[in-house]
Amino acid sequence: MTDQQELLDLAIEINSLLFGNFQLSSGGSSSYYFDGRVLTLNPKGSYLTAKCFLPLILESGASFIAGPTLGADPIVASVATFSYLQNSPVNALIVRKEQKEHGGEKIIEGSFAPGSKIAVVDDTCTSGSSLFHAIKAIENEGGEVTKVLSILDRNSGGSKKILDDGYDFFSLFVANDKGQISCNL
Questions:
Q1: Strand 91-95 and strand 64-68: pairing?
Q2: Assigned domain for 122 exists
Q3: What value does the mean pLDDT take over residues 107-124?
Q4: Considering the domain boundaries, does residue 70 fall inside one?
């Protein structure tokens, strides 16, 4: 069994991925609900997520992983920790929803130099708005986005827009138009 399949099975087992009838915040409905934080805050889920993402990040040449708070927070932390244990350190960054109005007035927590190569991650890609927020914040600070990642691509237009804008995108799981979730191999 692949790490991706093990992660998908775990998502179902711990009720991070539920099937039924769900009302979405956009006003639509869905035959499934994915709560990425349930998965990435689980010890095994955190480990498997990092294990799946680290090779993709390293292949992209990135030495940083960043994502929008709150969905990406556990992901960037687990990848940074796992990367250290693998002797291939990848530093973590967190992109705030809004720039701080005090102290260093940062929008990105963590430190990187202009020109740094950064992989951007989130738990889910629907419209892509959270990922684009992180991408633009990083680029505005002089970072170079080498990869965009998500655990689940809902195939609701976000991943297509990311690809159309020239970014290298990959998700571990993909949903089809019937609401079936599978590993993206």
A1: parallel
A2: yes
A3: 97
A4: yes
| Sequence-ordered strand ranges (E) for 6-143 | 17-23, 29-34, 64-68, 91-95, 108-109, 117-125
| Contact status, residue 57 vs residue 65, Cβ threshold 8 Å | yes
- Say if 10 falls within a structural domain: no
* Domain enclosing residue 163, as ranges: 50-183
At 70, the pLDDT band (50, 70, 90 cuts) reads: very high
Cβ pair 76, 65 in contact under 8 A: yes
CA angle 19, 20, 23 (to 5 degrees): 110
Tell me the C-alpha distance between 44 and 5, whole Å.
13
The model carries a pTM of 0.95
Residue type, 87: N
Residues 6+ apart with CB under 8 A from 102: none
Which CATH number fits the domain that encloses residue 142?
Answer: 3.40.50.2020
Q: How far apart are CA 123 and CA 49, in angstroms?
A: 10
Q: Is the pLDDT of residue 103 over 70?
A: no
**How sure is the predictor about 24, in pLDDT bands with cuts at 50, 70 and 90?**
confident
DSSP string computed for 148-165: EEEEEE--SSHHHHHHHT
Residue 29 lies in a domain: no
Total domain count, the chain: 1
Which single residue is written with the structure tokens 């005090």? 102
